[in-house]
Amino acid sequence: MVNIQIQTSELNLWFGKNHVLRDVNLPVHSNQVTAMIGPSGCGKSTLLRCFNRMNDLIPETRITGKITLGEEDIYAPRADVTTIRSRVGMVFQKPNPFPKSIFNNVAYGLMIQGKFPRHELRDRVEESLRAAWLWDEVKDRLNSSAMCLSGGQQQRLCIARALANRPKVLLLDEPTSALDPQSTAKIEELCLELKKSVTILIVTHNVAQAGRISDHTAFMYLGELVEFDRTEKMFTVPADKRTEAYLTGVFG
After folding, report:
1. pTM score
2. pLDDT tens digit string along 114-126?
3. Residue 201, domain member (yes or no)
4. C-alpha distances in angstroms, 241 versus 11, 221, 228, 244, 245?
């Protein structure tokens, strides 16, 4: 039986008069990696930000349709946005650690909730750093500034920060585009490990990366979800000629 973690139904989004997403129906499978690919400006990152309501922060945003996280409609009038964002973590294109210690970067989201005793904060920080494969590299300098870490380490720190809330879903918006090949490979390996405990949705311009790490792929074009399927099938026998053209480099 297929277990769906997130489902969009007839999702439309406008920024002012600009119709950015058009009737998107996307199932995101639990404990798998789903990649979203497509040319620049096709709506991938906008769709990704719908899942934790980040687009709410943009003026003149209007959304119709439905997004369910488990059984909850996250755009229902009484939906608690703070709770939604704790259940749906996000990591951005460029590493963005806070100008704080490594420890406080990971603990920050927990500290502002004000309900975790110090010993539990320590345990959660270690748990999250271990999950992000960073603990062994930083365990002796947790009080040092996060700004002293390498780019790849900073991105794994941002992943640890997102994991500290024990989210159901992790959104990754081109998380390796600013990293060197070695750091990229480590993040990709990490995604394959993390999907055992969290559902991952990744936006990537790198078609080869989608092929390496994703279980399912969604191809977006001009605000529409053109095709969604198992990655192996889509990359071998795409159902739509536009998908085939994109995958073979005819446009992009």
Report:
1. 0.95
2. 778 889 999 999 9
3. yes
4. 23, 12, 13, 5, 6
